[in-house]
Structure formats: structure tokens, C-alpha cells
Amino acid sequence: MSNPHIIAVPFPAQGHVIPLMELSQCLVNHGFRVTFVNTDYNHKQVVNALAADESQLSDRICLVSLPGGLEPWEARHEVGKLCEATERVMPGKLEELIEKINQGEGDKVTCVIADECSGWALEVAEKLNIRRVAFYPASAAILTLQFSIPKLIHQGIINDDGTVLRSQMIQLAPGMPTMKTTEFLWACMGDLTAQKIVFQVMVRNNKAAKLAEWIVCNSAYELEPAAFTVAPEILPIGPLLASSRLGNSACYFWPQDSTCLQWLDQQPPCSVIYVAFGSTTFFDQTQFQELALALELSQRSFLWVVRPDITDKTSDPYPEGYQDRVASCGLMVGWAPQQKVLAHPSIACFLSHCGWNSTIEGLSNGVPFLCWPYCSDQFLNESYICDVWKVGLKLKKNENGIIPQGEIKSKVEQLLGDENFKARASKLKEMGMTSVKEGGQSHRNFKNIIEWMKTC
Ligand code: UDX
């Protein structure tokens, strides 16, 4: 008898690959075989980064790659181009891959789990008559916003090409975070052309989601009950974290610098500011230096993730003499083992761009936030953090669009000087973690889905 065999298809960006890999590892622990499909470019990065720690992946996960439609030198952070290239090339390649597997001797593909943002993969699965699960790596609220696009057009809030007609605050339902219409996910993704492409992709994904037999997301009912009430078809199965299954996280595009964990061991409890902006955020020189000086000014210890591509400067991006001056209190690394960092007792707060993975990782460890959102769903996540859960503070830009050092310093002091933030964060941590334990709602949903998958 053949074993259930899942094909997992992420959207080709780091913040999407990590949580789908986490879900894949959970499936493997329940006896499934998983073929995980990256683009050629991302696959190379993952394999290079994995070389440092081969133990992170189970032998029941087969990493494969398909052409992603972009040349190696083309910019992957331009999301419009990334979407266009992916949708042009990958559907045909995925179809060929599935047919090849199914004609072979091994286990036939029984189910496709595709990132909801890669709706084309659900369309391929439907065409080949394979069962389908849509996985959403971010909040239920942002997916609810996407599902509400027809209503937003009908209400005259946006045009049918996604253009925002009125700048206003809206709330999709009581209890949900308020959103600025100009900060709708697609409306803050690059230039106008990119925004229109992203919007069209979301409209297509809305149709594709209807092909899925389950829609699951990396969130918990306790974190966003209103969103799950508005869109009951979305089922929470999170927070998906390596620590919950007592494993290591995997599928990173950069090698992790784990020396920072030993450095954290030497710091007093609740003393370190952790600063990280996910995988794509980019700083201009002025803002980068302002942040650097703010951390120095704070007179606290800090661990700062400075990705090799975080600024456009090829030479030293730091203020003159900076690295020597902060050597005794600050550590900069290219890529940290973030989930382990956030679980470390010396972390006091998280200065974050509010990507959903970072948000959920910070919450799961009871860490308060300083919020610095850039694009995508990050403004909505900030609103959850500051307005709904009240576990963080927003940073304000000045008239030049810069967050100045004084603002950062004073918000650090305000956040760490008020124990209520930490107390609320600790409470949320308990709530979130309960949901993935036996008896919790995310746990129950996950169990139902795997039972169903076994029958596919
Ligand atoms: C993007 C979007 O920003 C996010 O809002 C969306 O929900 C998913 O795609 P990204 O910007 O990379 O992702 O941010 P985030 O969602 O926070 O994901 C970053 C991931 O990289 C996290 O899992 C984090 O633990 C990991 N990370 C980050 C590291 O492991 N080490 C680091 O040094 C920095």
C-alpha cells in the first residue's frame, strides 16, 4: 500500500517558505512523505545554508526545485515581477513534476498544499484531480481583507483595479484591527505597476482559494477571534513553531549565526533589545545610521540582524567608528536563529518590522514589541500588536519620513518602563500556546486535517 504523499508549494519568498516548511515537518512527524518545491534560486540558497547543519531536515522531506522564471541577477524583492514570473513559468513545471512522480515507482501524490498566495498551484492540482489544501502563512485578518475585495469595490472604497478611492480608516468587523485604506496590502507594495499586479494576483487567488478543500492559516483563534468569525472557512493551525515539535527550524536562505546565542547567555535576564526586520526590508543610509545611533544612545545591550543586503551601500554602512564604540554592548549578525533568540531569557523587547512570522514568534515567547512596519500586511500586524493586543508601541516618522533616534530611544524607555506590556505579552503567550496543545483549537483543526489527508 502506498503512503500519503504531499506536495508543498510555497510562495517563493523567505517569509512564506519558513512556515510552510514548519507545517511540512509537522506532517512528516505524522507519517506523511513531503515533496517541498522551491524555485531553483531559492533552492540553491536553502541548500547552501543547510550545508552548515544537515540535521535540520527529515529524510521524509524531499527538497526539489523548479525554474521560477527570473534570472539569477533579477531582483526578487520586486514582488510584482516575482509574481508575474512565477505565474508564467511554474504552473507548467509543477504539472510536469507531479506527472513524473505519479508515473514513477514511488508513492503517488495524494494532496497538494499550496500557499494561498500561489493560487496557481491549486489550479494545477484541480486540473490533475489531486486533493487540495490552501495554506495562508499570515493572519486571518489579512486574508479576510483579501476575501473582502468584491465588497470593498461594491462599497466604492477601491476601484476594480485596486486603486484606493478614499483614504480612510476601516474596520472589517468589530474586534478586528482598524486599517488605513492607503495601507491595504496591495496598496503599499512598490510602485503603481507592482500594486496593480499584486492586486490582480489576489483577485485570482480568491478564485483559487475556492478550489481548496481546506483553508488553513498560521494563527490561533485566541489571537484573532473576530477575523475567524467573519471568515469561518479559514481554520487556524498555529502558531507553527519549531519549538512546539521540539525540533529545529529549517529552510533559511542565509546561514544562521548561532554565536549570538552564547553572547545572549552572558547578558542579564530581560536586558537585550532584539532588532530584526525580516528577509526583505531595505534601509536607506540615513535611516540605517539613525537606527544605529539610537541603539547606541539607548545605553542598553542589543542584538541587531543586519542582513548583507539590508542597505544599498557596498562599503561600511555604519557611522564612523560605530562598531568599535558599541562593541561592549551590541552585537550585529547577518542572520540569527530568530526563534531561539526570541525564546532566550535575556531578550527584553523586539524592534520589528512586524512581518507575521516575527509577530507570531514574538507573541509565542511573550516578548513586547516596538513596531516599524514597511509594507504588505505589516501595518495591520502593527495595529494588532499596539491597538488590539496592546503588547507594543508604534514608532512615529518625522516630517522627512525618518524615524529619528530620539523617537526610538524614548519608545524603548516607555516600553521597558511599563511592566504592563510584558504582563500582557506573557498572558498572550499562554493563550497562543494553549491552542496548539492537546485540546486546543489549532491542535484539533490540525488533527482533523491530517485524518482527512490520510484518506486522500
Ligand atoms: C514577509 C512579510 O513581511 C510578512 O509580513 C508576511 O506575513 C510573510 O512574508 P518577512 O518580511 O521576511 O516576510 O518577515 P517575517 O514574516 O517576519 O518572516 C521572517 C522570518 O525569518 C521569521 O520566521 C524569522 O524567524 C526569520 N528570521 C529573520 C530568522 O530566522 N533570522 C533572522 O535573522 C531574521
TrEMBL record:
Transmembrane segments: none annotated. SUPFAM superfamilies: UDP-Glycosyltransferase/glycogen phosphorylase (SSF53756). The keyword Transferase applies. One of its GO terms (molecular function) is UDP-glucosyltransferase activity. Keywords: Transferase. InterPro entries: Glyco_transf_N (IPR058980), UDP_glucos_trans (IPR002213). Belongs to the UDP-glycosyltransferase family. This is Glycosyltransferase N-terminal domain-containing protein. The lineage of its organism: Eukaryota, Viridiplantae, Streptophyta, Embryophyta, Tracheophyta.
